[in-house]
Design a protein that fits this description.
The chain is built from 19 helices and 14 strands. The protein is an alpha/beta fold. It folds into 2 domains: 199 residues, Rossmann fold, CATH 3.40.50; 245 residues, NAD(P)-binding Rossmann-like Domain (Rossmann fold). Strands 3-2-1-4-5-6 form a 6-stranded parallel beta sheet, with helices on both faces. A 6-stranded parallel beta sheet has the order 11-10-9-12-13-14. The radius of gyration is 24 Å and the shape is globular. The structure holds nicotinamide-adenine-dinucleotide. Nicotinamide-adenine-dinucleotide binds next to helix 1 and helix 5.
């Protein structure tokens, strides 16, 4: 099938490459000319495991092509996916300009029937708006084309986007138009093993709300566990034991129960904010989500608070080694990363940082810029040299089994602040390093 994809970001590019791998003829468009020129030469604009090889294979096979020309993309596909960014402001108002710009472009250029699919995460009613913008453009030029608009939210996770595209837990198709449902069902066929379980067809508004409800639920689980972690700390219990204990219950399940330094990334925070804002505006205050956000806000300062306690308030002049900057492992995405809150708080308190991340250094450096109180390190080891203590913020695989004896030697006053609870406290302590985790019942004097 011929497919056009608008947006070559984390989602659009991964989706495009996977569709091409499955044999579809994919044209992926982006408004960012430099990004497209790079992609045409096989240069990746982002870090996502397995994606580079898949893009290269698609380019070589000719099933994947890139363009910055809106018209060409509007004319190519039988199905046209809108996968552009939908940022939300601090209050939760979602900016749909990019989505509507694509819709208007399709309305201006399209010369035959089409199924237009909104894959961007966007508030309930966005597909209706896309339809209105499209019809407006078509009627302005007197064109009468059969165009169906569907909502098809995406649930892939950065860091495993290719795997998630190839084997989705489920595909949600929001459309009551049999033609659109049939086309999308055929498009997704290569990725679906069990249609009764994985393929969910519903109306557009339910599909749009499903995406927000999913992210709100995931954020709620994390904030819930972070609250339990505070209680565990106070009560002398270990949240890691509690996590295993409740995760073994099939009604609860083991995923998204990690206590830590707060959730971040381009989706959870933005989508929770957007859902709460939209519900508030319509007079349906979502009290749970306000609490989820408040807890997460506080949680992002948790490592800093532990350090303040450790240094008895005297953080000025200290040097902190920071391992991990990206909002999660296996990505270079710095959007809403909890590391940024830690860095800001340390700098405001007069500390210096020595930072290292396996993939996010260029994005972090671009975001933060050069300053005297940060040293950008090439290795995890370099970040330790001459630092007072170590904070682990992102649990990349390369940080999971470190040489604790080496860490003890490199740090001036050996202490690890484990923001993701990946280390065994007893093992760390037996190397002569003080250990602080999140909710591990070892620092109950903190409260
Ligand atoms: N990143 C995730 O993990 C994830 C997961 C599920 C859903 N989503 C949703 O998917 C959407 C895309 O997210 P992302 O992380 O891929 O964003 P991104 O910022 O990585 O990529 C968006 C791309 O769209 C391009 N773009 C903007 N306007 C355009 C236009 N008019 N025409 C063509 N291209 C245009 C941008 O240049 C950019 O390259 C968002 O709505 C997001 O909420 C993201």
């Amino acid at each position: 099938m011929k497919v056009s994809i608008f947006g070559a970001g984390y989602v659009g590019l991964s989706f495009a490459a996977c569709l091409a791998e499955a044999g579809h003829e994919v044209l992926c468009a982006d408004a960012d000319l430099a990004r497209i020129e790079g992609l045409q030469r096989g240069l990746m604009p982002l870090h996502e495991p397995d994606l580079e090889a898949l893009v290269a294979a698609g380019l070589a096979a000719g099933t994947l092509q890139f363009t910055a020309d809106e018209r060409t993309a509007c004319l190519h596909g039988d199905v046209l996916f809108i996968v552009v960014n939908t940022p939300a402001d601090a209050e939760g108002r979602v900016d749909l300009r990019h989505v509507m710009a694509v819709a208007a472009g399709i309305g201006r250029h399209r010369d035959r029937e089409a199924v237009v699919v909104c894959k961007s995460t966007a508030p309930v009613g966005t597909a209706d708006q896309v339809e209105a913008v499209l019809s407006g453009e078509l009627s302005q030029r007197g064109a009468q084309l059969r165009i169906a608009v569907a909502a098809n939210p995406e649930f892939l996770r950065e860091g495993s986007a290719v795997r998630d595209c190839r084997r989705p837990d489920r595909v949600v198709i929001g459309s009551e138009n049999p033609w659109a449902v049939d086309l999308l069902t055929r498009l997704y066929e290569p990725f679906i093993e069990d249609p009764t379980r994985q393929l969910l067809v519903m109306d557009r508004r339910s599909a749009e709300l499903t995406k927000y409800a999913a992210n709100a639920m995931l954020a709620t689980r994390i904030s819930f566990m972070n609250e339990m972690a505070r209680l565990a700390e106070h009560a002398g219990a270990d949240i890691e034991m509690v996590r295993r204990g409740i995760g073994a219950d099939r009604r609860i399940g083991p995923d998204f129960l990690q206590a830590g330094a707060g959730y971040g990334g381009s989706c959870l925070a933005k989508d929770v904010r957007a859902l709460r804002y939209a519900a508030d505006r319509d007079g349906h205050a979502l009290r749970i989500l306000s609490a989820v956000e408040a807890t997460n806000h506080e949680q992002k300062s948790r490592l800093f608070d532990l350090m303040t306690h450790h240094f008895e308030g005297r953080i000025a002049g200290k040097t902190i080694a920071v391992w991990g900057l990206a909002f999660k492992p296996d990505t270079d995405d710095m959007r809403d990363a909890p590391s940024l809150v830690l860095l800001e708080r340390l700098w405001a308190a007069g500390a210096r940082v020595q930072v290292y991340d396996p993939a996010a250094m260029p994005n972090a450096r671009g975001l933060i810029g050069e300053r005297d109180d940060v040293r950008w390190c090439d290795t995890a080891q370099e970040a330790l040299q001459g630092a007072d203590v170590l904070a682990l913020v992102t649990e990349w695989a390369e940080f999971r089994r470190p040489d604790f004896a080496g860490i003890a030697k490199a740090l001036r006053t050996p202490a690890i602040f484990d923001g993701r609870n990946v280390y065994d406290a007893a093992e760390v302590e037996s190397a002569g390093i003080a250990y602080y985790g999140i909710g591990r019942g070892r620092s109950s004097l903190l409260h």
